[in-house]
Amino acid sequence: MQLDLLGDFTRSHRNGELRLSHAGETVRLLGWCKRARNLGSLIFIDLRDRWGVVQLVADETQVAPELLTKLKAVRSEFVLAAEGVVAEREAKNPNMATGDVEVRLSALRILNTAQTPPIPVDDVPEGGADASEDLRLKYRFLDLRRPSLQRNLILRSEAANLVRNYFRKHDFIEFETPILTKSTPEGARDYLVPSRVHPGEFFALPQSPQLFKQLLQVSGFERYIQICRCFRDEDLRADRQPEFTQVDIEMSFVRQEDVQAILEGLMVELAALVGKPAPTPFPRLAYQDAMEWYGSDKPDTRTPVRLQDLTELFAVSDFNLFRAAAESHGQRRVRALAFAGEAAGAMSRKQLDELQEVAKQLGAGGLPYAKWGKDGLSSSFKKFITPELEAALKAKLDGAAEGLVVFAVGTDDATSKVLGELRLRLSRQFGLIDESRFDFLWVVDFPLLEWSEEAGRFVACHHPFTSPHPEDLDLLDTDPGKCRAVAYDLVLNGYEVGGGSIRIHDALTQSRMFRALGIGEAEAREKFGFLLDALSYGAPPMGGLALGLDRLAMLLCGETSIREVIAFPKTAQARCLMTDAPSPVDPRQLRELKIQTAQPAQYRAGVMFFETVPIEAQAPLQALRHMTATAAQKQTSTLTMDGEVLRVETSNLGGPSFDFE
RNA sequence: GGGGUUGUAGCUCAGUCGGUUAGAGUGUCGGCCUGUCACGCCGAAGGUCGCGGGUUCGAGCCCCGUCAGCCCCGCCA
Fold first, then answer.
1. I need a labelling partner for A618 at 20 to 30 A (CA). Which of A419, A509, A542, A633 fits?
2. Residue A126 CA to nucleotide B38 C1', Å?
């Protein structure tokens, strides 16, 4: 098809902004054909740009023949430049922002054609089905043409802009810190970048600019902000990508409350972007209480349901499993969730079985329950429920006649994990969560250290530069697991949207911390020498926080996956379906980097046929069958037959080759 | 690393107990149509049932393996 040139065509209006007040004006519009409707001698085209959609119309009896020919050639997603007069519609469309008007075409340029899209470009109408996510990711450039994704990414841009302005207003200075930096032993797995200039040595992509922002405090900038990309080579989730964006801030001469106050101001403005109130100050909840009441360090407080400790109710019970917990002196506890109401009481056996599966997957042995429905009590341990126990349990339903109590027994870690998840699921199922709300919350007083079985030592809960709680300083040497940190997480609707801490700002405490972490003097010098140096040259008291911009944008947009607010996200297997990255590289590139990849072993297999296998040949044949890949490169088998020696050179065996583990 | 789930027309899906020529909606293409806007009506084209083995007289369906998407556990200072 002959394409038209853009030439001297300039846009006069955006498609979404045309209203009745524009009637009579001649306008020039640009965009994509959302849909062409040809009614014979009357043709409609919906023209889309990022600001909206407007209807173009042409009447066969009124327009020039060459314009008509062009119009009939227009297909979905063609790129058009249109000129016409805005007119009030005969038949208005109340569902469109521009539905009162249409543009009577006087001229049309087809700037480009388009193949039929492999996925629907328009948002799916009600009841319709979306394209599968792998296709959407493969054709992301088309997916991103959809109004809903455009809205998300535009809102994200607005949010990022608001963040920049907010911090600038508060005297923060924006910095850029290195992307090629040093690998650090703590924390997530690093993405590594080989150095060509220094063969055998590697940069790491930053997991966060943590140390750099602290050094900028030592330099005296006092207030730092960066909207930066961070990289962690760990497995993905719906709210986790290998590269993600942090709003990273750091401040000098501040206490925890100062950092929280400035963040709350920002959250109020961000929430207002989408018309949500966010009353300040946000509630503060100690980590201990969060785990005790919600079974989570990022509780969704939109549901009022709390975990309860019912251990004592079973102190004299015949139910051994629960009584054993009561006798364990707090090592194990019986904890429970109570849901009052008919919906909870009407849970079917099948639903409870499904719930039990969820509990098992989270590590529970099963899911004991007690349920009061239309037919009275039913329970997985009914024979152990005495009338007194039933009364005590039912009291947890706050006087309701029907309801459900689910139990978990075990260590606090185990019961928190199970009940924390069930609390969310069941609250959602029973409609206890007000989805319209934005519930902000600070979780504070995190532990400083936790024991790692894998590492065989204590590791930092937040990071190794987090200040111990002043009251707990001595515990660092005597009982490190009990030592609290001056660390705080910002939680929104059950998502951790940010986390930060007050930092250690003197070399002595930092060395103590490294010691508690089992990082020796020599290792500390090698990995963090520059930090220890900096701390010994007049570092101010400092603290900060990092916000997950992707998660925040996701929540602002009302989405449940951060892929919906990232232009080009990766799959759950950390692959880009559009570019097909990662991919093998040219061997020359590897040679320059002095890097060798571990090739899957090539193993050649041949087939030999014997009418009979002589007894003396059986052993070597067995050897062949069990030959490993490495052995195959050297091993030679000897077969003796009819007195003749037959050497089987495995390295010369012909035929197809296969990869083996 | 582990568990769950999905894979059939361009797209979204159905496909019974293993049995004739694998269907629907939508999209696409062609024809008709002057008020459509999820346009309507008529017609047509469109299939490596993810891939590879196996069982069977016969496999979209059963078995084994494998690849990919999604969700979760581990992991993510």
1. A633
2. 9
* Closest protein CA to C1' of nucleotide B73, residue: A362
What are the backbone dihedrals phi and psi of residue A193, each rounded to the nearest 5 degrees, phi first?
A: -125, 120
Q: How many CB atoms lie within 10 A of CB A11?
A: 13
Q: Are the C-beta atoms of A42 and A57 separated by less than 8 Å? A: yes
Q: How far is the CA of A106 from the C1' of B41 (A)?
A: 30
Checking each nucleotide's C1' against the CA of A234, the nearest proves to be B76
- Distance between CA atoms of A337 and A355, rounded to whole angstroms? 13
How many Å does it take to go from CA A337 to C1' B77? 32
ipTM: 0.95
pLDDT at residue A603, as a whole number: 43
8 A C-beta contact, residue A373 and residue A402 = yes
- Residue A67 CB neighbour total at 10 angstroms: 15
* Residue A182 tokens, joined: 């040093």
Nucleotides of B under 7 A from a protein CB: 1, 3, 10-13, 25, 27-29, 32-40, 68-77
Question: How many Å apart are A30 CA and B39 C1'?
Answer: 24
Residue with tokens 């009914």: A382
pLDDT in tens, A97-142: 999 999 999 999 999 999 999 999 988 766 667 899 999 999 999 9
CA of A607 to C1' of B52 (A): 20
**pTM reported for the whole predicted model:** 0.89
Is pLDDT at A628 greater than 60 in this prediction?
no
pLDDT for A619: 52
Distance A143 CA to B39 C1' (A): 25
Rounded to 5 degrees, what are φ and ψ at A377? -75, 135
pLDDT at residue A631, as a whole number: 39
Residue A51 has pLDDT above 50, yes or no: yes
A56-65 contacts, C-beta under 8 A, 24 or more apart: A56/A29, A56/A82, A56/A84, A56/A102, A56/A103, A56/A105, A57/A102, A57/A103, A57/A104, A57/A105, A58/A104, A58/A105, A59/A104, A62/A104, A63/A105, A63/A106
A570: nt with nearest C1' to CA: B69
List, for residues A361-391, the tens digit of each pLDDT value: 898 999 999 999 999 999 999 999 999 999 9
Q: Which residue is nearest to nucleotide B4 (CA to C1')?
A: A361
Nearest to A31 by CA among A145, A143, A164: A145
Question: Which nucleotide, over all strands, has the C1' atom closest to the CA of A90?
Answer: B35
Task: pLDDT band for A92, please (50, 70, 90 cuts).
Answer: very high
Q: What is the pLDDT of residue A621?
A: 52
**Mean residue pLDDT across chain A:** 90
Contact indicator for A203, A182 with CB cutoff of 8 Å: yes
Task: Give me the CA A115–C1' B29 separation in Å, rounded.
Answer: 13
CB atoms within 10 A of CB A147: 16
What is the pLDDT at residue A615? 56
Look at residue A278 in the predicted model and tell me its pLDDT: 97
